[in-house]
């Protein structure tokens, strides 16, 4: 008895394989896919990969090195180390995908990369909570608000916050980690406000002991991220915002290896100079202060903007498209 799966449909005959027609032949086989979006994605990635091979005259040794590189990325990754995310970040893909899927218009806050150090074990904390146990850090008071594009406050937004310590390490980089530190989950109050005590962020190198670090060294790139605090703002009915704030003047502000810095996310730190504020937030006079007003798009605003941008891009490509689960696919050949 044959161990082969029976053919679900008749496959169009392939042609004699050559460097010129291999792409067309792969498309013939993949054309049996019933999901139009998946079929479209594979058609484009095969086209670009094959064009890359032909354009660069890719050698067997180089292709094998690429396969080994990706294999090593998978082998070093685990629940706390996300080397594939780091690769995506350092190639600029993470920021590109986020910008496509979460487009912004004034006055909405711009997004940026999630990064490889987010976890799902951060504890729920009350406003005013201290996120860090680092005794060597410079304390930072963070006071923020969340509003919609009309300027109205948004209450009960879930705000996931995380940052590294005073030496530039995240808690997940500690081999003796017993639980979350430098991170927490807060909620905005009735006025859309939330506040907490963090530390003044410092620049730090992304992990260089793995395959991505080796890639950066071969490319002559530095690994140093400017100091920042990560935020993820989430509430049903609003578009998810993953972003970060970067204190102005960091030496790596203009050469972030993961391309996460945007001008609108660079902030000026001030100081607590009002005794009443120092008393209200239980901090010392002169404590560095970060204030920021986040603005969220509604889900509908984001969907409309995403579709508008997609239509504009398809028009640039002279493509007629239809929509499948809110995503574009070519109008021709849709099954």
From TrEMBL:
Keywords recorded for this protein, A-Z: Dioxygenase, Iron, Metal-binding, Oxidoreductase
Family: Belongs to the intradiol ring-cleavage dioxygenase family.
A Gene Ontology BP annotation from the UniProt entry: catechol-containing compound metabolic process
InterPro entries: 1_2-HQD/HQD, Catechol_dOase_N, Intradiol_dOase_C, Intradiol_dOase_core, Intradiol_RC_Dioxygenase
Residue span(s) of domain Catechol dioxygenase N-terminal: 35-108
Signal peptide as annotated in the record: none
Domain Intradiol ring-cleavage dioxygenases: 115-295
Keyword Oxidoreductase found: yes
Gene3D superfamilies registered for this protein in UniProt: Aromatic compound dioxygenase
CDD domains recorded: 1_2-HQD
Species annotation: Penicillium decumbens
GO MF: catechol 1,2-dioxygenase activity; ferric iron binding
Protein name: Intradiol ring-cleavage dioxygenases domain-containing protein
Cofactor: Fe(3+)
């Amino acid at each position: 008895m044959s161990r082969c799966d029976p053919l679900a449909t008749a496959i169009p005959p392939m042609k004699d394989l050559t460097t010129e027609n291999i792409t067309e032949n792969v498309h013939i086989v993949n054309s049996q896919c019933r999901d139009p979006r998946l079929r479209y994605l594979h058609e484009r990635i095969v086209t670009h990969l094959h064009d890359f091979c032909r354009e660069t005259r890719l050698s067997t040794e180089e292709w094998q090195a690429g396969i080994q590189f990706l294999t090593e990325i998978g082998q070093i990754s685990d629940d706390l180390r996300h080397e594939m995310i780091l690769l995506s970040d350092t190639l600029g893909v993470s920021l590109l995908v986020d910008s496509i899927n979460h487009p912004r218009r004034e006055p909405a806050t711009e997004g940026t990369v999630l990064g490889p150090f987010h976890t799902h074990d951060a504890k729920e904390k009350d406003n005013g909570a201290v996120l860090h146990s680092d005794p060597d850090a410079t304390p930072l008071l963070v006071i923020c608000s969340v509003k919609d594009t009309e300027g109205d406050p948004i209450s009960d937004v879930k705000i996931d916050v995380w940052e590294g310590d005073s030496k530039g390490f995240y808690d997940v980089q500690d081999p003796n980690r017993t639980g979350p530190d430098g991170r927490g989950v807060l909620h905005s109050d009735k006025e859309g406000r939330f506040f907490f005590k963090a530390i003044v962020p410092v620049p730090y190198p992304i992990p260089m002991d793995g395959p991505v670090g080796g890639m950066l060294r071969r490319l002559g790139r530095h690994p140093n991220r400017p100091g920042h605090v990560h935020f993820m703002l989430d509430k049903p009915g609003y578009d998810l915002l993953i972003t970060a704030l970067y204190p102005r003047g960091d030496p790596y502000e203009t050469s972030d290896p993961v391309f996460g810095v945007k001008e609108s996310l660079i902030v000026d730190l001030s100081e607590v100079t009002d005794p009443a504020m120092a008393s209200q937030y239980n901090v010392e006079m002169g404590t560095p202060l970060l204030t920021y007003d986040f603005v969220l798009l509604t889900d509908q605003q984001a969907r409309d903007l995403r579709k508008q941008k997609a239509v504009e891009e398809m028009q640039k490509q002279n493509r007629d498209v239809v929509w499948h689960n809110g995503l574009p696919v070519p109008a021709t050949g849709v099954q």
